[in-house]
């Protein structure tokens, strides 16, 4: 395409690139927009305009991407060096929008997920050789998250080709703007004080990515013409649940919160659901053995860096204080443990 700027990323320098963000007002999309503006990019967003005002400095286009004619009209004759998409619904939607953009966008970055790997994820899973779920890029069903995300990957690859696509596969995404509500729930629970049910082994190590690190890396990788699938999470064993909850107590200033570490057997016997009722936490069971041992060495070799957990927890708390709790994500069940259920388990320990 004519007139496209060539970008080389140098730390601390601006990136000359025209970027289209599909979405751009919620969680990962918002983080991408903010990182792109900070890097000096010319940013255009396209969304329905229902999830908050566009960021200052962007060109905001209004369209419902499920309406192809409306999306085509909103895009006009625009061309961009790159686009980033976070779509997690029916693959057919991203298929049609990708086909529309393939001739006017140079490179495409898609925020996928580790969930595209077939269950159970093996220990040390890497991008090569790990089985993925079966999926249809033309499916109009977005109810199966794993199949929908893999179908979206296939749709993007079909439209743009492997030499133009970056597939970022994060696992647990934390940080400011988290509308899923996992870390925000823990922060609010600690803020309430009292005895806090802390599940399982304090040394349980989990993997995650700060949404700002994900966004910054994708922009650098696209500018450097990096392509292919990448597992984008911190290194195995780097972060423990004890550190997470300790930082929650610290940043909230709630000295009255007492972390009561409860054996996982007691938690599971009480019928408490890992991951949903107690967000982020998974028990030490064979079926979950690979979830927090993901091989992310390829992303690190391609320039990914992970900030300390302290910065992620502190920034999330600061955002909650500044903007309040976000509207729940309608596509995900709201996480958190009922206080009465928590009290029942804690009382049984005494």
Task: Write the SSE topology.
Blueprint: E1 18-22, H1 27-38, E2 42-47, E3 59-62, H2 68-75, E4 80-85, H3 91-101, E5 105-111, H4 145-160, E6 165-170, E7 173-174, H5 182-192, E8 194-199, E9 209-210, H6 211-223, E10 228-232, H7 241-252, E11 257-262, H8 264-269, E12 274-275, E13 278-279, H9 297-301, H10 309-323, H11 339-349
Parallel strand pairs: 1-2, 1-4, 2-3, 4-5, 5-6, 6-10, 7-9, 8-11, 12-13
Task: Describe the overall structure.
With 350 residues, the chain is α/β, with parallel strands linked by helices. The chain folds into two domains: 18-173 and 209-232, 3-Layer(aba) Sandwich (Rossmann fold); 179-206 and 237-291 and 308-349, UDP-galactose 4-epimerase, domain 1. It has eleven helices and 13 strands. A seven-stranded parallel sheet has the order 3-2-1-4-5-6-10, with helices on both faces. Residues 1-11 have low confidence and may be disordered.
């Amino acid at each position: 395409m004519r007139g496209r700027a060539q970008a080389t990323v140098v730390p601390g320098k601006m990136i000359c690139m025209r970027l289209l963000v599909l979405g751009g007002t919620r969680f990962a999309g918002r983080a991408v927009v903010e990182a792109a503006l900070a890097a000096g990019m010319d940013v255009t967003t396209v969304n329905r305009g229902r999830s908050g005002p566009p960021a200052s400095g962007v060109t905001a286009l209004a369209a419902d991407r499920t309406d192809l004619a409306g999306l085509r009209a909103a895009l006009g004759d625009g061309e961009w060096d790159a686009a980033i998409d976070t779509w997690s619904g029916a693959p057919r939607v991203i298929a049609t929008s990708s086909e529309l953009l393939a001739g006017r966008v140079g490179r495409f970055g898609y925020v996928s997920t580790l969930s595209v790997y077939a269950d159970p994820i093996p220990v040390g899973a890497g991008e090569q050789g790990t089985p993925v779920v079966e999926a249809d890029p033309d499916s109009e069903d977005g109810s199966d998250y794993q199949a929908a995300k893999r179908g979206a990957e296939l749709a993007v690859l079909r439209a743009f080709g492997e030499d133009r696509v970056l597939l970022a596969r994060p696992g647990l995404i934390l940080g400011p703007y988290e509308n899923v509500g996992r870390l925000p729930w823990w922060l609010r629970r600690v803020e309430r004080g009292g005895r806090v049910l802390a599940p399982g082994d304090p040394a349980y190590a989990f993997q995650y990515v700060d949404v700002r690190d994900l966004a910054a890396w994708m922009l650098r990788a696209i500018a450097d013409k990096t392509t292919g699938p990448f597992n984008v999470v911190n290194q195995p064993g780097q972060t423990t649940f004890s550190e997470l909850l300790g930082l929650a107590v610290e940043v909230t200033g709630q000295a009255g919160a007492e972390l009561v570490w409860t054996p996982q057997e007691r938690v599971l016997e009480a019928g408490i659901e890992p991951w949903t009722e107690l967000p982020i936490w998974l028990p030490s069971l064979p079926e979950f053995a690979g979830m927090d041992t993901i091989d992310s060495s390829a992303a690190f070799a391609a320039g990914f860096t992970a900030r300390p957990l302290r910065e992620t927890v502190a920034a999330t708390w600061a955002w909650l204080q500044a903007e309040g709790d976000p509207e729940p994500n309608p596509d995900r069940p709201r996480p958190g443990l009922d206080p009465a259920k928590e009290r029942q388990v804690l009382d049984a320990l005494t």
